[in-house]
Amino acid sequence: MTAIQSNDLCLSYGETCIFQDLNICLPKGKITVFIGSNGCGKSTLLRSLARLLTPKSGQVVLDGSDIATLKTKEVARRMAMLPQGPSAPEGLTVLQLVKQGRYPYQNWLQQWSKEDESMVQRALELTNMKHLAERSVDSLSGGQRQRAWIAMTLAQGTPTILLDEPTTYLDLAHQIEVLDLLFDLNVRERRTIVMVLHDINLACRYADNIVAIKDRKVWAEGQPQDVITEELINSVFDLECRIIEDPLFGTPMVVPYGSGKQPGQLHGASDTETPAALVV
């Protein structure tokens, strides 16, 4: 089944074409990760799928409905979008931020309900932010702040969640923490997760489906073991590498190298020196 698909989608900024006649299908209940070099259009595509960018032509279909025909609140009940580097008003508490996730369900007839409260508390619990609920968002560490924003996204209660580089500016421990949280949501609740990641090895580890983007088009799409090859990394990132198996997860692992230090060359050894360990 398909959660989101694009039909002959054309995206542009002014006269600059970003994507032309793009057709993709993102599987329902799976984790899809967009990869590609800086400026290739990953974030632009994600924004268009969330209806934050109006296409020049073509359509985005969300759960079988043309997203352009849906009311704003209806889209917000079906899909949540966490942009890159979101900011909150000064002094806003974590609890106040997370409550914003329930906005799509509010109107002048229906005010704050027990269901709203339950969803907020559950989001705080899932993200391990309950003990920080009364702290201001701007006083949190980078990892805590990102979890607060994810909690707000979860409080929306949508079956589909889009995230633009959710691990940016986080250290490795917090990157794993955030990705584990999203993985658990996918496994336990079958939420459809679509995100942009820069770390290809983490993308391979967590994704069911990888979409590689280059030259304003989808270069390859599919399961990590089918998509991530030495040829693809060279073509998409202009980078030489070796692909080995992740010893813990069995997924593809990219071992990159450039034009400087070469594979097998010991640190500090010149090109003419023979490493002592290799002397027989």
TrEMBL record:
Keyword Ubl conjugation included in the entry's annotation: no
Predominant location category: membrane
Topology class, membrane: Peripheral membrane protein
GO process annotations (BP): iron ion transport
Top-rank taxon: Bacteria
SUPFAM superfamilies: P-loop containing nucleoside triphosphate hydrolases
GO cellular component, one term: plasma membrane
Keyword Methyltransferase carried by entry: no
Alphabetical UniProt keywords: ATP-binding, Cell membrane, Ion transport, Iron, Iron transport, Membrane, Nucleotide-binding, Transport
Single GO MF descriptor: ATP binding
Subcellular location: Cell membrane
InterPro entries in the cross-refs: AAA+_ATPase, ABC_transporter-like_ATP-bd, ABC_transporter-like_CS, P-loop_NTPase, Siderophore_ABC-ATPase
Protein name in UniProt: ABC transporter
Organism, scientific name: Paenibacillus naphthalenovorans
